[in-house]
């Protein structure tokens, strides 16, 4: 790893900074840069109340992918009030947008996801399952927090740029429907990153970290298979029917038998979307939805082809027909080394939040409730490790930030706003996300992101190093081939019915910061609430 230098800044802080070769500038000495960073840290710290209000407000919306109307309206209103121009509905997605401020180069784009999880409604600060509304969606991954990190950081840097006459352009955009891997590949296809010099992405975590290289998680293609048969009376004349549900079930059986002979790194999972209407009618239509995950493009394509063969076989066995629709996709991620190393120096500068006894009590009580060791909250930042050996990559989750990372040098900042050892996509992952744990973690993340943004805006050498890695290492032997076709369109219908079922009831619980200091106060929750 490159050597680091320790400098004392304007506020007397001991700052751990990236190598001077990357941050040297013709018009800014290293001491001046460190003084600027100290000023930005103080500026973000002064916005702690904004962090809490924004975080809690988005948490209270709890919207699912493609249906984030309240969330997007709220965020774009804040950005507009702070001088950003807003292009809404990008890539034909009603809840998507691109916010822009500034002029000239470099152009730095900040992104984070905004969607929630089905059936994840949960009262914050309560260390056992206690939904705000039973069965409703909620932020069971913590996507209510990432845009807060980015927007607070961007506004602080914008104010510094205005004060000091710095040029450059800041863009902010949302990961709509990330849980469906539904939009970022469309942003890429439609050219929204073609003039961007670097991308800073943020994602909630229980630790402070970033990474570089490939091998963390899988890419995927999301495919819905629709089968078509013929209805008939299930008892009176079943021989006259051709069951589309039989085809969907046989496809599932076939994929499950084939699973034994697939690579260990694959992740294949499905749900039945449409299984018919009632038992006494042979289902003339049925649908099953698959995620095919693998570690690289060739293996994603091969796994997808296996799915198509299973669909064809199931249709032949049931005398039905089939067709498929791509609902989303994600390329395997490859994060930029130069930007990650610089960001890691900023993470070390800021360090972990100071957790209170109440924070630790909530964490340990929740961990005990879900049956894992009650270790509490992390107190040390993660190490910046080398990429995973491709031969040892056993796969995992996905994020369509991978598509963006193959267009422009990109990193993900993971900030400590949640509790360790939770299952993910679960009510328990909502518990901390409108509490002091999230507020402290998001504020720390915003400080780091402000420094990351500042460094990229003011160091040509850092930008050059990022592109050198992108061209000479990342894309030297591997090229991006979209999983989307030119005819594919965003699946903006997803989650419409769920939100239609719950939204009116959820509105009664939207956070009102004009009446309540925190969302915990509005809900009447004593922090922390744990089982006796």
UniProtKB/TrEMBL annotation:
It comes from the Bacteria. GO terms for molecular function: dipeptidase activity; para-aminobenzoyl-glutamate hydrolase activity. Keywords: Hydrolase, Signal. It holds the Pfam family M20_dimer. Residues 219-296 form the Peptidase M20 dimerisation domain. GO terms for cellular component: cytoplasm. GO terms for biological process: folic acid catabolic process. Residues 1-26 form the signal peptide. NCBIfam families: amidohydrolases (TIGR01891). This is Amidohydrolase. The lineage of its organism: Bacteria, Pseudomonadati, Pseudomonadota, Gammaproteobacteria, Alteromonadales.
């Amino acid at each position: 790893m490159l050597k680091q230098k320790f400098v004392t800044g304007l506020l007397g802080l001991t700052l751990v900074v990236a190598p001077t070769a990357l941050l040297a500038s013709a018009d800014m000495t290293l001491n001046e840069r460190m003084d600027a960073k100290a000023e930005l840290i103080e500026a973000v710290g002064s916005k702690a109340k904004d962090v809490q209000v924004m975080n809690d407000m988005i948490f209270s919306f709890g919207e699912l992918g493609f249906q984030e109307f309240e969330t997007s309206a709220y965020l774009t209103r804040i950005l507009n009030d702070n001088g950003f121009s807003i292009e809404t509905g990008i890539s034909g997605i009603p809840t998507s947008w691109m916010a822009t401020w500034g002029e000239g180069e470099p152009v730095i784009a900040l992104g984070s996801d905004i969607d929630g999880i089905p059936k994840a409604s949960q009262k914050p600060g309560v260390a056992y399952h206690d939904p705000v509304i039973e069965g409703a969606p909620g932020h069971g991954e913590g996507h209510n927090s990432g845009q807060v990190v980015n927007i607070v950081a961007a506004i602080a840097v914008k104010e510094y740029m205005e004060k000091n006459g710095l040029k450059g352009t800041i863009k902010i955009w949302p990961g709509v429907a990330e849980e469906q891997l539904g939009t970022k590949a469309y942003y890429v296809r439609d050219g929204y990153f073609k003039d961007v010099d670097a991308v800073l992405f943020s994602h909630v975590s229980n630790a402070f970290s970033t990474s570089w290289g490939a091998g963390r998680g899988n890419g995927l293609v999301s495919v819905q298979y629709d089968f078509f048969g013929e209805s008939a009376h299930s008892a009176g004349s079943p021989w006259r029917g051709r069951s589309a549900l039989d085809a969907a079930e046989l496809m599932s059986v076939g994929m499950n038998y084939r699973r034994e002979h697939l690579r260990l790194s694959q992740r294949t999972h499905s749900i039945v979307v449409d299984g018919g209407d009632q038992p006494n009618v042979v289902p003339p239509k049925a649908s099953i939805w698959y995620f095919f995950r693998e570690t690289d493009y060739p293996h994603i394509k091969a796994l997808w082809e296996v799915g198509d063969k299973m669909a064809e076989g199931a249709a032949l066995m049931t005398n039905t027909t089939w067709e498929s629709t791509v609902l989303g996709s994600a390329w395997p991620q490859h994060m930029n080394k130069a930007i990650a190393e610089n960001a890691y120096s900023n993470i070390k500068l800021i360090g972990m939040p100071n957790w209170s006894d109440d924070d630790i009590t909530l964490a340990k009580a929740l961990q005990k409730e879900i049956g894992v060791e009650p270790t509490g909250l992390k107190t040390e930042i993660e190490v910046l490790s080398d990429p995973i050996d491709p031969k040892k990559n056993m796969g995992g989750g996905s994020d369509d930030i991978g598509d963006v990372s193959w267009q422009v040098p990109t990193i993900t900042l993971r900030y400590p706003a949640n509790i360790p050892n939770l299952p993910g996509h679960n009510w328990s992952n909502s518990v901390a996300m409108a509490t002091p744990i999230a507020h402290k973690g998001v504020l720390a993340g915003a400080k780091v992101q402000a420094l990351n943004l500042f460094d990229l805006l003011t160091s040509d050498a850092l930008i050059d190093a990022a592109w050198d890695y992108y061209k000479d290492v990342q894309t030297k032997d591997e090229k991006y081939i979209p999983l989307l076709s030119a005819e594919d369109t965003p699946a903006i219908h997803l989650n419409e019915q769920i939100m239609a079922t719950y939204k009116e009831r959820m509105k009664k619980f939207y956070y009102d910061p004009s009446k309540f200091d925190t969302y915990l106060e509005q809900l009447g929750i004593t922090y922390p609430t744990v089982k006796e």
